[in-house]
C-alpha cells in the first residue's frame, strides 16, 4: 500500500489538502448529477461493477504487485498509475456487462424523478466508495482534507 500526504499534490499554487478536498467535492457533485441523469439501474450496475472491480483486484493483487515490481519505472506514482489503469479497465468491462443485464430492468415503469433521485443517491454512494478506495490505496485522509476545507469557507456550513 502506498503512503501519500496531501502535500504531495500541490499544484499551481493550490495547497495539497485544498486540492484533494476540491477534487473530492467535485467527484461527489459530478456523481450525484450523473446519477440523477442516468437513473437507478445504470447507477446500480455501475456501483456493483465498482465493488466487483475492487474485490477482483484485491484477489489478483499479488499477481499485479509482482508484475509492477518488474516494470522499468518504479516509485509510488508508477505503482498508483498501474493500479488505476487496471482498475479502470476491469471497471469498464464489468460495468458494460451489468448494463447489458440491467437493460431489461429499465422497462419497469418508474416515475422519472423517482428514478433520477434514486440514481443520484447511488451516484453519491459510488463517489463515497471511490473516495474510500483512494484513502485505502494511498493513505490520504480525504475526509480530514474536506472537513478542513469546509471549515475555512467564509460561509458557515453545518458539518455534523
Characterization of this structure:
With 160 residues, the protein is mainly alpha-helical. It has one domain (21-139). Helix content is 72%, strand content 0%. It is built from six helices and no strands. Helix 1 runs antiparallel to helix 5 (112-138). The longest helix has 27 residues, at 76-102. The protein is flat, with a radius of gyration of 18 Å. The two termini are 31 Å apart. 20% of the residues are buried. The mean pLDDT is 74.
Please name the defining characteristics of this protein.
160 residues, mainly alpha, flat
Helix and strand layout, with pairings?
Blueprint (H helix, E strand, L loop, with lengths): L15 H23 L1 H20 L1 H9 L6 H27 L9 H27 L3 H10 L9
Helix pairs in contact: 1-2, 1-5, 1-6, 2-4, 2-5, 3-4
Tally of separate helices: 6
**Structure summary, number of beta strands:** 0
Rounded mean pLDDT is 74
CA gyration radius, whole angstroms = 18 Å
Give the % helix: over 70%
Strand content: under 5%
Low-confidence stretches: none
Based on Cα principal axes, name the global outline.
flat
Query: Could you say how many structural domains there are in total?
Result: 1
Biggest sheet descriptor:
none
Elements, N to C (H/E): HHHHHH
Quick structural summary:
The chain is mainly α and 160 residues long. It has helices spanning 16-38, 40-59, 61-69, 76-102, 112-138, 142-151.
Amino acid at each position: 500500500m502506498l503512503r501519500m500526504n496531501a502535500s504531495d499534490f500541490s499544484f499551481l499554487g493550490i495547497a495539497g489538502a485544498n486540492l484533494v478536498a476540491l477534487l473530492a467535492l467535485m467527484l461527489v457533485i459530478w456523481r450525484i448529477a450523473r446519477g440523477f441523469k442516468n437513473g437507478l439501474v445504470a447507477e446500480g450496475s455501475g456501483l456493483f461493477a465498482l465493488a466487483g472491480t475492487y474485490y477482483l483486484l484485491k484477489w489478483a493483487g499479488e499477481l499485479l504487485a509482482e508484475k509492477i515490481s518488474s516494470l522499468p519505472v518504479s516509485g509510488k506514482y508508477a505503482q498508483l498509475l498501474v493500479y488505476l489503469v487496471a482498475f479502470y479497465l476491469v471497471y469498464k468491462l464489468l460495468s458494460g456487462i451489468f448494463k447489458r443485464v440491467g437493460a431489461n430492468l429499465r422497462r419497469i415503469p418508474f416515475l422519472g424523478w423517482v428514478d433520477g433521485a434514486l440514481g443520484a443517491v447511488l451516484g453519491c454512494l459510488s463517489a463515497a466508495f471511490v473516495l474510500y478506495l483512494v484513502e485505502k490505496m494511498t493513505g490520504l485522509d480525504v475526509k480530514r482534507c474536506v472537513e478542513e476545507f469546509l471549515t475555512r469557507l467564509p460561509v458557515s456550513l453545518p458539518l455534523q
